[in-house]
Amino acid sequence: MKLPALAALAFAAASLHAADEAKPALATAAPAAAPALTPPPAPIVKDLTPEQQKQAFFLQGFFLVRQAQWASIATELDLSDDEVTALLDGMRAALKNETPKFKAEDIIPGAEKMIGERVAGKAKRWGAQNEAFLAKIDADKGFTKTASGLRYKIITPGTDPKPTAASTVKCLYTGKTVDGKVFDSTATRGNAPAEFPLNGVIPAWTEAVPMIGKGGKVLLVAPANIAYGENGQGPIPPNSVLEFEVELVEIVK
Question: Domain limits at 177?
């Protein structure tokens, strides 16, 4: 049986170990014959304790859900804790090759109706929340609206020169949905700047980041059409207005 998530972790750990190995010193005299390389000893892997074995299977389930983005189901359907438990019970039964203790055909039509109504209701409520947020931003005279629908407020202009849409930059940022939930932030990754080409990100960033220079900060509000669109992405629901605070740390040369 393959364990892709855990294998990926092992590969990542091996890569990090290799990167930490000492590099050969620069030659300062006439080069000598290269010595025969001795392979490093194989690392000793200890057997897991019973508690760690449980943690290993926890990680397997955790990464399977993350990779498949199953967590978005709970958000899209507004699942309660009891409903999440029922969902996990179904997954547990399938893993154990069990069959449902009820006739699935008796409830499938009603289940499809219930889920459809939930998705539609959530989308309607979310749409109204997004529209109300944009109306609030438009009432704020500190924001400027562009032809694309981008709303932005420059907090700190930064220094010249400014990047172009073709530049690669390093930025610190925090992204939120209109309910104030942070869906991504460099602050959660040791506050290390993220590096990316401006022509390879969402259109709102391609447009807004060139408005500031190194050291500059901009607050931008992106409607769905210049963000992640009608499909959303990961924790971002479909048709989401997004708010970003972006600091330009460096223009990569």
Answer: 142-252
